[in-house]
Amino acid sequence: MGLRSVFSANVIIQEVASPSLRELETEIGNVPAVTSNIDKLLLHRGHIFEELVETIKTHREMDFNNMTIEVILPNGRPEAAEDFGGVFRDSLSEFWSSFYEKCTEGTDYKVPIIRHDFGEQEWKAIATILKIGFLKEKYFPIKLAPTFMSECLGETYLDEDILNDFLKYLNQLDKDMVTSALNNFEEVDNDDLITLCDTFKSKWIPSKDNFRMLIQSIAQQEIIQKPAFVSQCFKTELIEISSQIINLKEIYIKLEPSAKNVIAALELCDNTESASCNTENTKKIYGFLVKYIKESDEKIRSSFLRFCTGSNLITNKIKVEFIESDGFARAPIGHTCTNLLQLPNSYENYVVFRKNNPAPPKWLDYFEDKKHRNVMEQVLGLKRDNLGSFKFQQNQMRRLEAAMKKYIDAITATLDPAVPESETFGQANAGIATPASIPSTETAKISEQLSTSSVPHHQPARKTGQKKKQSSAPQMAGLLRRQETPECYGASAWTETGHPGELQIPSKSNETP
User: Fold this and answer.
1) Which residues on neighbouring strands pair with residue 41, listed in sequence order?
2) How high does pLDDT run on average in the chain?
3) Which segments show compositional bias classed as Basic residues (predicted)?
């Protein structure tokens, strides 16, 4: 047996094969590369959309059913998880979130736009990923307008369906204006309607008699006619699943991360060694969770689902288990491979639970800031979703809090919005960089402190009368803790890059992970 390497545009494939004439022909490009033996796909966090599209384009026959995915962080380290389903679902969530941002227009419902750098192969690759996600995990991009997807699947739809989708395609201000005009035309300022119609290059002047027909024709134009090329590309790839989708509307309703659907997806575990699910205390905490879900918005509910299952849609039931945990270590734990949420049973009241909830808004917003997130990931090797994958004791938590406070203070003091982000923190295509204000020796020192768990941590004694300093960093007790199952934990679960049966999409940075 010999090791064969086949190179293409942006991918490296390695597989085991016996030396033969066919192998030599493949190496010189006369025979297409065989990709059925690939069992691992390496993707880079933040580039999953581009890398998956490129993978499908160049290796269309790749079998995802028996393939695992490994995600590489911006600092070059692999995420602490092995793919038993959770990593694949998380990759799908990032892929479609990036797709909505880069390739669509609309608010509640979105429609693909024509891009000069996206041809038939790119759109067919996206449709293939849609098909793979649906067949393997029942994941479906429900933010795409249903009538557009009906067109892609060859299903019928009504003019009223297009109108309803178009209202959700509009921003809230325009949606309210159009709805009011449809109900009572005289109540709406005619100049505002003309401005809206002019936005869509309408040739009609809106009036009471023609307004409904006018809006329906605009809806047809925006949702069906403009993305017609995209729908044709999708249609050829989605034939395989069109027969399995009997009721498209039902799929949209079931997958939607509404409060009702999320609560219905929760299942209490029957066996918890440390805390029975039947006790009054655990029932009270379960009630806190239900109340929190009811009060949260869609963004938080999607983050909660992704924290528990890897998917930001309702593709699985979520098992809820109660554990003994208190102090700094008290935080919810999500096991995305088994769709398990572990909740500490020591919350005194709902306010305390909400501060320590599975998706704290302050930290969520903080990590949505790309500049902050880059530093946290690249300098400290931390990510929002798996900050708690390390089982911190109190002394380790204090060290981490001190290190994070130092970096947060440095970032806050030195950030200059006028400086391009790629120059300050290093985009993926410019290599990994740390802020100039943070010495590399200090980085190494703190990294060493974080990795050394055997050295006890002692707080310096405070002098009499000296006031305790207030930490400017957010409290670590409210951070997420997201773990995979114990059997897929640790460095022993990883294989070195370059082993047979492994596919790597190289990062576009100058630094190779």
Assistant:
1) 69, 503
2) 73
3) 459-470
On the 0-12 / 13-18 / 19+ scale of CB atoms within 10 A, 451 is exposed
Rounded CA Rg of the chain: 26
Question: How is residue 410 written in tokens?
Answer: 């440095």
Residue with tokens 């998956």: 52
Looking at per-residue pLDDT, the higher value among 184 and 388 belongs to 184
Residues sharing a CB contact under 8 Å with residue 106, sequence separation 6 or more, in sequence order? 145, 168, 169, 170
Q: Is 49 within 8 Å of 428 (Cβ atoms)?
A: no
Both tokens of residue 284?
A: 């009270």
By C-alpha distance, which of 224, 254, 255, 240 is closest to 150?
A: 224
Torsion angle in degrees (nearest 10) through CA of 71, 94, 289, 394: 30
How remote is the C-alpha of 218 from its chain's centroid? 32
* Domains of the chain, start order: 2-78+497-504 (no CATH), 146-255 (no CATH), 259-355 (3.30.2410.10), 364-451 (no CATH)
- Which residues touch 200 (CB under 8 Å, ≥6 apart)? 218, 221, 222
Query: Residues 77-111: pLDDT tens digits?
Result: 998 877 888 999 999 999 999 999 999 999 999 99
Please tell me the distance from the alpha carbon of residue 306 to that of residue 321, in angstroms, as a whole number. 17
Q: Could you give the CA distance from residue 511 to residue 513 in angstroms, rounded to a whole number?
A: 6
User: What is the tally of helices (H) and strands (E) in the chain?
Assistant: 21, 12
* Number of residues that this document lists for the chain: 513
Q: What is the pLDDT of residues 422-479, one digit of tens each?
A: 333 333 333 333 333 334 444 444 444 444 444 344 444 444 445 444 443 333 333 3
CB of 405 within 8 A of CB of 23?
Answer: no
Question: Hey, what are 19's tokens?
Answer: 């030396």
Widest pairwise Cα distance in the chain: 84
pLDDT, greater one: 84 or 402:
84
Give the span between the Cα atoms of 201 and 193, in whole angstroms. Answer: 12
Structure tokens at 199: 């936005």
Handedness of CA 9, 12, 16, 19 (dihedral sign): positive
